[in-house]
Specification:
Radius of gyration: 20 Å
Number of helices: 1
Strand order of the largest sheet: 1-5-4-3-2-8-7-6
Helix content: under 10%
Structural class: mainly beta
Number of strands: 16
Amino acid sequence: MRASRLLPLLVLLGASGAAPPARADSTTATCILSRHDHTLPREKGPCMFSQRQGNATVRFGRWVFDFPAAEQGRSFERSASSEGIRFNREGHYTLQVLWRQAAVASAKPKGWAHDNVFLGRWQGQSTAGQAVIDVLTVEPNRIRWGNAINGICDSDYSVQQLPWGRNGRYPDQLVPPSAPSQLVFGLVRLTLQPGPCRTGDAVIQLAMPLDGSSALEVVTYNAKGQLIGQYGAFQSLPRITP
């Protein structure tokens, strides 16, 4: 029975009863399912990954996800790293399959989930092209941005807190201040886990002037540490309550 109302191409495990393909390479893993709907919670737990001739199957809880090789780049995107594999169906869900050594949640600084000026939803620029963040959502254990046209990045992350500085300066600032200032920026770099998004973004840097203006400056880097995205000020959006 197909669960068409919730996620395309998912099959209820209990209803399907289908066995993995013969001689498929199979391994246990940890899966993280993030639906592209803020009202639905993220799911994480043990799963079984199987693959034969490029056709992948993931059994996760009551679901079976099928990713035929012939559909890659059409109905879903697939990216791999040493930590695992990410499957993305735009507008529906992102499924991360993490090997055992990458399954532990990324550590965050003490108080990150509660006393944190960077958490929330932020409206960015909306010009055309690949360098579109649109709405940036920063949660205690997830970060998400992008759109259906240019791709959505949805990932866990580790946190590096950078020194906070005066005089209105922080790394990669596009326009230096025209006069000395006592303005202080809070600054963090978030490294996406388990690996970069398919757009090439591996690190996102957030800088906020601590003057109560609620403006967020954003830059992104690739896996080699090269600056690839520079953006203007993001404005805070109201929180969404389900």
